[in-house]
Design brief:
By secondary structure, the chain is of the alpha+beta class. The relative contact order is 0.10. It has helices spanning about 5-25, 35-50, 70-80, 90-105, 105-120, 235-250, 250-265, 275-300, 305-330, 330-335, 340-345, 355-365, and strands spanning about 125, 145, 150-160, 170-175, 185-190, 195-200, 210-220, 225. Helix 7 packs antiparallel against helix 8. The chain has three domains: about 5-120, Acyl-CoA dehydrogenase/oxidase, N-terminal domain (Butyryl-Coa Dehydrogenase, subunit A, domain 1); about 125-230, Beta Barrel (Butyryl-CoA Dehydrogenase, subunit A, domain 2), CATH 2.40.110.10; about 250-365, Up-down Bundle (Butyryl-CoA Dehydrogenase, subunit A, domain 3). A hairpin with a 2-residue loop joins strand 2 (about 145) and strand 3. The two termini are about 35 Å apart. It is built from twelve helices and eight strands. It has a four-stranded mixed sheet. Strands 2-3-7-6 form a four-stranded antiparallel sheet, with no helix packed on it. It is about 50% helix and about 15% strand. It binds flavin-adenine dinucleotide. Flavin-adenine dinucleotide (FAD) binds near residues 129, 135, 211 and 358.
């Protein structure tokens, strides 16, 4: 599938390419900690000053209000220019929290938070998963008890990405006493500097602390920070996760196309026939992923199974590409650092955002019509 563009689209592409060429930072972004958060804030600020903030957000909320076709072009140019990965400390703010506030938040919540997200003044993290509530998110137990005009929150979240330097968290908690499963939950804005919050970073396989456990010990959150009606958090959370199915991950998906070309360039002096065939297959798969992305983004409506098919294909392809990189580079991969780091990080792709097994369950039930679990 090819993207058919108009002359106006191509003018837009030229402007995006020129701005990115002049503004993408030359240095590699720091991988963790305050330095990574500062880098992200500075990059968001630069995008805003250049008129490229919130390209998928409506204009009335400070975004660019671009139609899907232009968003695709932006991300094609973005990865081509090797701009900072979209999966950094800005991901939740730009792709989850902001769009959720736009869809479900009060006017006060929008007026306070949305400008701070676009300017890089507020980074967000996600607090959904718990030690016993990941795939089965509705079994979460972190509790918020109404006390006057506040909720008093106690419990624990885990795997909260970039929470160590985030300013706010989209926090899903159980607020209706005695409720079970997806009933009685609330989606709340949690100020990460509130007294009673402890963030304990977790080191991953690649030796980097991207995510953390977050503990809540009598944390007081104003009821005015509940997004949507109290106890209606499951609906709001599904709105949040719905944004992942469309535009949120396209930068990552296109990035794989750039990485396979980089790998082919590295392999060229050393490739034998078997390696060349493997790389050619991977290039074809990256093209297939790009076509799936075009199809999903340009087609309405997007269903959960569209998101699952793309997420699964992306995750497994990323693992295949970085495994091939290890075979191309051999021990040299350890000297370079970047490829071996990405190889180790890619293991988490079939866990984050819903595991491969869960995506296969969704595809089996909703696309293939197999019996429910
Ligand atoms: C890099 C990374 C970043 C993350 N960032 C965040 C974040 O910012 N915020 C956040 O809230 N969470 C985050 N997560 C958590 C992520 O959403 C969960 O890890 C994921 O949903 C799986 O949950 P779990 O780890 O509890 O595994 P479990 O749900 O306990 O699953 C364990 C195993 O059982 C399998 N399994 C479970 N149920 C079924 C079933 N019904 N059928 C078949 N197999 C099943 C799973 O596939 C898996 O192999 C992140 C995870 C990773 C890896």
């Amino acid at each position: 599938m090819q993207l058919t563009t108009t002359p106006e689209d191509e003018t837009f592409r030229t402007a995006a390419r020129a701005w990115l060429a002049a503004n993408v930072p030359g240095e590699r972004p720091p991988r963790e900690g305050k330095a990574a958060a500062d880098f992200t804030r500075a990059w968001l600020r630069r995008c805003q000053q250049g008129g490229w903030a919130g390209i998928a957000w409506p204009r009335q909320y400070g975004g660019q209000g671009l139609p899907p076709q232009r968003i695709l072009i932006w991300y094609e140019e973005y990865v081509r220019a090797r701009a900072p990965s979209v999966l950094d400390g800005s991901f939740v703010a730009l792709n989850h929290a902001g769009p959720t506030l736009i869809a479900c938040g009060s006017e006060d919540q929008k007026a306070f938070h949305l400008p701070k997200i676009l300017s890089g003044d507020a980074l967000w993290c996600q607090g959904f998963s718990e030690p016993d509530a990941g795939s089965d998110l509705a079994s979460l137990r972190t509790q918020g008890v109404v006390d006057g005009d506040h909720l008093v929150v106690n419990g624990q979240k885990i795997w909260s990405s970039y929470s160590d330097h985030a300013d706010y968290q989209e926090l899903l908690i159980r607020t209706e006493p005695g409720s079970r499963h997806h009933k009685g939950l609330s989606w709340v804005i949690c100020d990460m500097r509130a007294p009673g919050i402890t963030v304990r970073p977790i080191r991953n396989l690649a030796g980097v602390s991207h995510f953390a456990e977050v503990f809540y010990d009598d944390v007081r959150i104003p009821l005015s920070s509940v997004v949507g009606p109290l106890h209606d958090g499951w609906r709001v959370a599904m709105t949040t996760l719905g944004f992942e199915r469309k535009t949120a991950a396209m930068g990552l998906q296109f990035e794989l196309g750039v990485r396979i070309e980089d790998l082919i360039a590295l392999a060229r002096p050393r490739a034998g026939t078997a390696l060349a065939e493997r790389l050619a297959d991977l290039r074809a798969e990256a093209a297939a992923l790009r076509a799936m992305t075009y199809r999903t983004v340009l087609r309405e409506p997007v269903t959960p199974s569209d998101g699952s098919m793309m997420r699964l294909y992306f995750a497994e392809l990323a693992q295949r590409i970085f495994a091939a990189a290890m075979d191309v580079l051999g021990p040299e991969a350890l000297l370079d650092g970047a490829w071996s780091h990405d190889y180790l990080e890619a293991y988490s792709e079939t866990i984050a955002g819903g595991t491969a097994e869960i995506q296969r369950n969704i595809i089996a039930e909703r696309v293939l019509g197999l019996p429910r679990e």
